[in-house]
Amino acid sequence: MKIPGVPPAELADLARAEDRISFLYLERSVIHRDSNAITATDDQGVLHIPAASVGVLLLGPGTSITHQAIALLADHGATAVWVGERGVRYYAHGRSLAASSRLLIAQAAKVSHRDRRFAVARAMYAIRFPGEDTANLTMQQLRGKEGARVRRTYREHAARTGVAWSHRDYDRMDFTGGDAINQALSAAHACLYGIVHAVIVALGAAPGLGFVHTGHERAFVYDIADLYKAEITIPVAFDVAASGSTDIGADTRRTVRDRVHDGAILARCVRDIRTLLLQPQPSGMIDDSDFEDRDSLGLWDDNGFEVAAGRNYADIGDVDF
């Protein structure tokens, strides 16, 4: 019997993840499909985007997308993520871009083993201290070193911009209760969390399985976002606070949007997550097969290996009921 609907693309027709547009942001448009292309229609016309060239489609404010377009993205191993303006807030996502659960399994294996978790956490701190030896520091020492780095970063940007700085002080339930710089920091960090969350779910990792942070549904989001705050959100917040803005939240979101508009932070985020969770290959590169594997479903066996799925094991003679 013929299965209704458009048949999925053959593996040979799909572009490798490394050859795709990693993340494409659209807003204020109607998204449909035309053959094997995604179409985005707005008041300026119609844009055709080959579905096989897209990794993740970020759907910003004012977008509507048809069932056929979502089906086409799924058939080509892509995903859709619903986000705020220019991708600075995460709302929901569709399927992962990853075709296998290899990244998720690696994350779970590392976070559930004390020594492996410590190794990943230490690697996260090492990213923040390039050229420094952190191999023999305890978690308490690493936290102290990081705290000193963040405090120093705040002081440097306060001196650069002339913004008075005392300490981080905010109420999650009362955004306007803080002073200008604390409002700007909260708004900027929220933008970064949205970007990082979108990347994590697109890669097929778990937002809640953190290595430094723990116990929260976005623990891994906070882990990864902390790698970029000193470079992106802290200087943005001080710049906005120094500008005399009368709408701290909106101005901060727009400034973060402009700062990450070239997509470089998305590429770095992908690279850092995969480097932290997957072992580098002998060449020093990360294997791309977690995106490219198809039909890799197996059954777990207690001998530590997988056995083939899609067969009835009652037909095997040594099955004992």
TrEMBL record:
Annotated residues for binding of Mn(2+): 146, 213, 226
Alphabetical UniProt keywords: Antiviral defense, DNA-binding, Endonuclease, Hydrolase, Magnesium, Manganese, Metal-binding, Nuclease
Keyword Hydrolase in record: yes
One GO process term, biological-process aspect: maintenance of CRISPR repeat elements
GO molecular function: DNA binding; DNA endonuclease activity; hydrolase activity; metal ion binding
Cofactor(s) this protein cannot do without: Mg(2+); Mn(2+)
Matching InterPro entries: Cas1 (IPR050646), Cas1_I-E (IPR033641), CRISPR-assoc_Cas1 (IPR002729), CRISPR-assoc_Cas1_C (IPR042206), CRISPR-assoc_Cas1_ECOLI (IPR019851), CRISPR-assoc_Cas1_N (IPR042211)
E.C. no: 3.1.-.-
Family recorded in the similarity comment: Belongs to the CRISPR-associated endonuclease Cas1 family.
Family annotation (HAMAP family): Cas1
Subunit structure: Homodimer, forms a heterotetramer with a Cas2 homodimer.
Function: CRISPR (clustered regularly interspaced short palindromic repeat), is an adaptive immune system that provides protection against mobile genetic elements (viruses, transposable elements and conjugative plasmids). CRISPR clusters contain spacers, sequences complementary to antecedent mobile elements, and target invading nucleic acids. CRISPR clusters are transcribed and processed into CRISPR RNA (crRNA). Acts as a dsDNA endonuclease. Involved in the integration of spacer DNA into the CRISPR cassette.
Name this protein carries in UniProt: CRISPR-associated endonuclease Cas1
Organism of derivation: Planosporangium flavigriseum
